[in-house]
Specification:
- The protein is an alpha+beta fold and 289 residues long.
- Helices cover 60% and strands 12% of the residues.
- It has eight helices and five strands, in the order αααββαβαβαβαα.
- Strands 1-2-5-3-4 form a five-stranded mixed beta sheet.
- β3, α5 and β4 form a beta-alpha-beta unit.
- The longest helix is centred in the first third of the chain and has 100 residues.
- The radius of gyration is 52 Å and the shape is rod-shaped.
Length: 289
């Protein structure tokens, strides 16, 4: 009987190679898949880290931008404050300079009155006092009026003429003339004309104002007359000397409340400048062209 090779091959056990190859292939695929998974996770982590870093960078940039704007606002405010302070300083300097000029002018007026009225001042009939921006001239009644009279006496006219010559040269002061009396009641023979000391003090002040305006050329718009009667004493009414001091006329120079007249040339210049400002196109109008 002969050997059949086909039968022998059929009876031969199958080879393990394909199974080994399949196992190796699956193992390799698993390894590759695991490695790819790890790389994917690593990439995701890196992406998350990069995203967080980007968000932080954006937040830092926003914070830096906000801080920069805040600093810019502070710098702008400081510059504005500096400008305001500089302007205030300049205005204050001008005010101080103007006030110094006023005080110097007032001192000049004081000196002129002191020189012209030195005899009356030496006798105690006239007193001068300066307080800040105000100058006060006190005149006892006997050098201006006869007893119980409101009309200015001849001697009073001479005195007021000298005072008025100085007052007429001042153009930036209001001049208040006030009449004062002592506490002694008006005598019966004078009550018809002056019922109380109010009327007597007011009438005397008005007559002094009229003399200064009409005879001494003091501008009437700067003159004010007022009567205080017996209610603003500067000494005791219990003694004759005190009552004599209280019977007085006071001339008070104070800063003028009325605005100074503006020269016509200045008014014309201001009007022309205003017209030019109106004719000049605005920035918005320029942008539309």
């Amino acid at each position: 009987m002969g050997y059949d090779t086909n039968v022998a091959r059929a009876l031969k056990p199958p080879s393990r190679a394909p199974w080994v190859l399949l196992g190796l292939t699956l193992s390799l695929a698993g390894f590759v898949g695991y490695h790819a998974y790890k790389e994917l996770e690593k990439t995701k982590a890196e992406a998350q880290t990069a995203s967080a870093a980007t968000q932080k960078a954006v937040a830092d940039f926003a914070a830096a931008t906000a801080a920069q704007k805040e600093l810019s606002d502070k710098v702008e405010k400081l510059e504005s404050d500096k400008t305001e302070l500089t302007t205030a300083k300049d205005e204050l300097s001008k005010e101080v300079e103007a006030k110094s000029g006023e005080l110097e002018q007032l001192k000049g007026t004081y000196d002129k009155l002191e020189e012209k009225m030195k005899d009356e001042i030496a006798k105690g009939d006239i007193s001068l006092s300066q307080d800040g921006g105000r100058l006060r001239v006190g005149l006892v009644d006997k050098i201006l009026f006869d007893s119980g009279e409101a009309a200015v006496s001849k001697r009073g006219e001479d005195v007021l003429a000298k005072v008025g010559a100085v007052l007429a040269t001042i153009d930036d002061k209001q001049i208040q003339v006030s009449g004062h009396t002592d506490r002694t009641p008006i005598s019966d023979k004078l009550t018809v004309q002056f019922p109380t000391n109010w009327e007597l003090s007011s009438a005397r002040a008005i007559n002094v104002v009229r003399f200064l305006s009409e005879k001494a050329n003091v501008p009437p718009e700067r003159l004010v007359a007022s009567g205080y009667g017996e209610y603003h004493p500067i000494a005791s009414n219990k003694t004759a000397a005190g009552r004599a001091r209280n019977r007085r006329i006071e001339i008070l120079l104070t800063p003028s409340l009325a605005p100074k007249a503006i020269a016509k040339s200045k008014l014309t210049a201001v009007a022309e400048r205003t017209e030019k400002e109106k004719a000049r196109p605005s920035p918005k109008a320029k942008g539309k062209r």
